[in-house]
Each structure stands twice: as structure tokens, then as C-alpha cells.
Amino acid sequence: MFKPPAASFGAAAPRNWFDQGGKAYARFRPEYPPELAQFLASAAPGTALAVDAGCGNGQLTVQLAAHFHRVQGADPSADQIAHAVAHPRVAYACAPAEALPVADHEAQLITAAQAAHWFDLPRFYAEVRRIGAPRAVLALISYGVPQLDPALNPRFSRFYCDEIGPFWPAERALVDTGYADLPFPFEEQSVPALGICKTWNLEALLGYLSTWSAVRSVREAAREDILQGFAADLTALWGDPAQSREIRWPINMRVGTL
């Protein structure tokens, strides 16, 4: 398991900082800034229904509910749906992005946040056209590699690029480029510059990294030496693990009108 040295955390026994599954995802994934949902609502032609495909545990889904009368979240993972955040205007369904439980031409906004790189895009785009109302808006949203402070970033960059780099699925490259290389056959709109900023302690950062598919692949390949080495180095560089440090992610979007 991926465990920083127990003594560094003042613990009697090592802890598993890299629990997997929907529970960890819900706890550690960073929230989007409220300005993102505000922008998406302002770009849509109406606010009757928003659909969030690949919604995960509902981070963006719930934020959209502040601006839309109804929001439909859909994700193929039952584990993610089981840990989705409840809201009176949000309905969740265990369903893939290519077969959304939405009536024809009903949605004013369709979003896919940190998920479109997993989709069968031709089938998803056909589904978007089926459920989209006239002039509906599609938004493919991703956030890039986290940026740590200068004392930590060189070691983190080596971990991300060199050590777990070979364990990333090929689709990860699409996230790193902000979906710039994805086909996007829609009338594209300009978007504001937005980002995510969190102040986290060491536990929160390692918990977030536990949700990465590359980290899971490292563990499945029995290469936990990679994770152990990174955890030990980061612990030494961090200092007091309870100390909070600022972490930033750029938000990238492809937004288009049907």
C-alpha cells in the first residue's frame, strides 16, 4: 500500500492514505469553483434541464442545481452513484454517456466534467444531438495537472511524468492537453479563464492522488516501491503533515452550441 512513514505522521501504525473507490473519490476530488456553473448556465438557452454525463459523485451536478430547475446526473459506475451528493433538484442514474436517460430535445445544457476522454465520442455526440434542445450547449470540462508550491513541484513532476507516467492510460494525454485534440463538431464558444484552488494538508493531497487511475495501475503491477518512495520524499519535503499548502489546477473547456 501507499503509506508515508508512520513516524512522520505521529501515528502508532501506518495508515492507508490511498483508499480506492467512490468513497475516496467523493472525499478527495477537488470541487469546481462556483463561477464554472454560473458561466455554463449563462451560456445555455434556458434553465429547465441540465444533464451531467459521467457525473461521478456529483461534484459539478450539484453545483448546476443552483441554476437549473432540474439536473440529471448519469454515470456507468454504481459505486460512484452510491456516493453521489443528494440534492432535491438532482436525479441520478447508473447509465453510460452514450445512452442517457433523457427525453429527446429536452436538455438546455449537457456537461461532461473530467470524463469525456473515456467516452465513445461519436455515440456520445449522437446522444447529445438527440437530447439537446434547440441551441443547447455542450461543455467538455477538464482540469489539468495540479501545481504545487516550488518546494514540492519538482519532485511531484518527476512522480507524475516519469514514475507513474507509463501507467497512465492513453486517454490521459487528452486531459493533459485540455481536450484540444478531441474532435468537437459544434459551434465553439469562447470561455473564461477559470481554475481550482485548494488549501490542503498532506493527507488530502495523497488521498486525491489515490483516485488516479495510474496509481491504481501501479498497485496492480506490484510496483508499490514507486509509491513508497514518492510518499517518503514528499513527506520529508512537506514538513509538518498538518501544514496546509496551496494547490492549483487550471480548468480547460470546450464549449459549443448545437
From TrEMBL:
Pfam families: Methyltransf_11 (PF08241). InterPro entries: Diverse_substrate_MTase, Methyltransf_11, SAM-dependent_MTases_sf. GO terms for biological process: methylation. Gene3D superfamilies: Vaccinia Virus protein VP39 (3.40.50.150). CDD domains: AdoMet_MTases. Belongs to the methyltransferase superfamily. This is Class I SAM-dependent methyltransferase.
